[in-house]
Amino acid sequence: MLASPLKLFALRLAEAARAETMTRWSAGIEAEDKAAAGREFDPVTEADREAERALRRLIEAEYPDHGISGEEFPDRAAQGRLGWSLDPIDGTRSFICGMPTWVTLIALLEDGAPIIGVIDAPRLDELYLGDCDTTILMAGGTERRLSTSGCRRLPEARFSTTDPFLFEGAEAEALAALRSRVRTTRYGHDGYGYARVAAGTIDLVVESRLSSYDLNALVPVVRGAGGVIGDWSGGGDFSAGQVVAAATPELFEEAVALLARAAA
Amino acid sequence: MLASPLKLFALRLAEAARAETMTRWSAGIEAEDKAAAGREFDPVTEADREAERALRRLIEAEYPDHGISGEEFPDRAAQGRLGWSLDPIDGTRSFICGMPTWVTLIALLEDGAPIIGVIDAPRLDELYLGDCDTTILMAGGTERRLSTSGCRRLPEARFSTTDPFLFEGAEAEALAALRSRVRTTRYGHDGYGYARVAAGTIDLVVESRLSSYDLNALVPVVRGAGGVIGDWSGGGDFSAGQVVAAATPELFEEAVALLARAAA
User: Fold this and answer.
1) From A71-75, B80-84, B131-135, the region with the lowest mean pLDDT
2) Cβ separation of A184 and B100 shorter than 8 Å?
3) What is the pLDDT of residue B167?
4) Is B17 left (phi over 0), alpha (psi -120 to 50) or beta?
5) Is residue B157 helix, strand or coil?
């Protein structure tokens, strides 16, 4: 992987986010409910907002013509082809429960397509940087290139999905079918599940209702490690928030065959 | 917490287990299916067996009259009142999926009742040591005394349970009732959920079908931090494998009121 100024800047962003998230993680957690009364619980922490503020400040100072899209504040339009997609804490539920697999998601998009992705797991000191061609894991002062596993069949697949009760109707049926065929299932790991696809210890992730800032960073990381990521129809249209990430094309196709009926 | 030779020995056991588990965690994972064909998937790794072997060797050398009960090998009867309960890797599914919250469980029992418990999370470098009176967390070379949260009501509770699909019949109904009342739910953290009850970031854990080596170590850790741990009827009979751990007596009672109908 060639170092480029934009990749190095993505790493600077991740470092700045860590400073905001880890001090608050260590100090204890004050979550609040940003959802309106009666809507589903959706915690967001001071860490989330302060980290997004820090990232926006850095981007505005260094690349004032880049667009910015994040979970906490209004979008800023790009003056050119490049823009950043930010989710300072993906996995706020894990964060407030003291569970370590929450991540920071940072992506650089060109004409709307993610070309650089960072999945940073601060509590684990694991940073995944991908550019669709190569993905590296930086951890404990070392770095290594990642490859997905060779898993080609559902019965051998280690499967991750965030919430077993998020799915309804045809989506729920598709998930139940998947769950009954795979080797084992893990829940609640949000973006970290995709990082482990890149690292070769999870073989398949299937999710629905992802927002663009939830998924942009995942694409270059999964593809850079040799994995396949697409929508539930097997294409590349993520507008419905339905995502499949697989270690191999064969596994991707087998999952898509099960999910196709439930695809948007 | 007073240091005692047996507590220091429990820490030595945890250290010996880490040496076996972490080398294999870092090297990659070769799981095998120890369940008979047709039975539920139950992975066990070389790390699990080798760590239990190392712990048994240490106990046999230092305390030849102590009993030993573990997941991987036959029980050894005690020549006196003391015995060890060992589960080198609780959370083998997390381990083989590269997820960091698997733990080593070590308990010392007196006349069958757990009096010292260790929950060690090697990947996270967090060791929880409890003696029913005090619980400490040793992490990153420092240690601090733990207290459970002050959470007294289900609507504010951060709830953890390992497998949302393990429950059937009345147990499944009880779990659904709990899930609909709590603030948020986390899945798949095995013994680490109880460690986080002690640390104050999870308020409630409810599980079923735990074996004695899954639960012995949890009891001194939860109680030492001021939490309550008992069975689904509110008593202390764990023989049915049904466990409730709560941050406060009030939360414990509210959970038990919901679970009582499904109690064994």
Assistant:
1) A71-75
2) no
3) 80
4) alpha
5) coil
- CA of A172: how far to CAs of A144, A160, B49, B90, B209, in Å? 37, 15, 37, 29, 26
Is the Cβ pair B97, A199 closer than 8 Å? no
CATH of the domain at B87: 3.30.540.10
Are A24 and A120 part of one and the same domain? yes
Q: How far is CA B149 from CA A22, A29, B203, in A?
A: 21, 12, 6
B187 and A183: CB-CB below 8 Å? no
> Closest partner residue to B41 among A183, A187, A196, by Cβ?
A183
Confidence of residue A123 (pLDDT cuts 50, 70, 90): very high
Q: What is the mean pLDDT of residues A196-204?
A: 97
Taking the CA of residue A58 and the nearest CA in chain B, the distance in Å comes to 31
Structural domain span for residue B254? 154-263
Q: Give CA B231 to chain center in angstroms.
A: 14
Global ipTM: 0.91
C-alpha A53/C-alpha A55 separation (Å) is 6
pLDDT tens sequence across B203-248? 999 999 999 999 999 999 999 999 999 999 999 999 999 999 999 9
pLDDT of B35 reads 41
Q: Give the total number of structural domains in chain A.
A: 2
Interface of B with A (CB under 8 A): 29, 41, 43, 93-94, 96-101, 123-124, 158, 160, 164-165, 179, 183-184, 186-189, 196, 199-202
DSSP designation for B101: T
- Please tell me the distance in Å from B76's CA to the nearest CA on chain A: 32
Q: How many CB atoms lie within 10 A of CB B24?
A: 18
Q: Where is average pLDDT lowest: A63-67, A159-163, B153-157, B242-246? A: A159-163
Tell me the count of A-B CB pairs closer than 8 A. 76
Q: Which of A127, A152, A156, A80 is nearest to A221 (CA)?
A: A127
Contact list, A29 vs chain B (CB under 8 Å): 201
Closest approach of B79 to chain A, Cα-based (Å): 41
Sign of the torsion angle spanned by Cα atoms B46, B50, B55, B59: positive
**Predicted TM-score (pTM) above 0.90:** yes
pLDDT digit string (tens) for B125-151? 999 999 999 999 999 899 999 999 999
- Among residues B102, B127, B145, the one where a domain terminates is B145
B75, B137: one domain: yes
Higher pLDDT, B54 or A42: B54
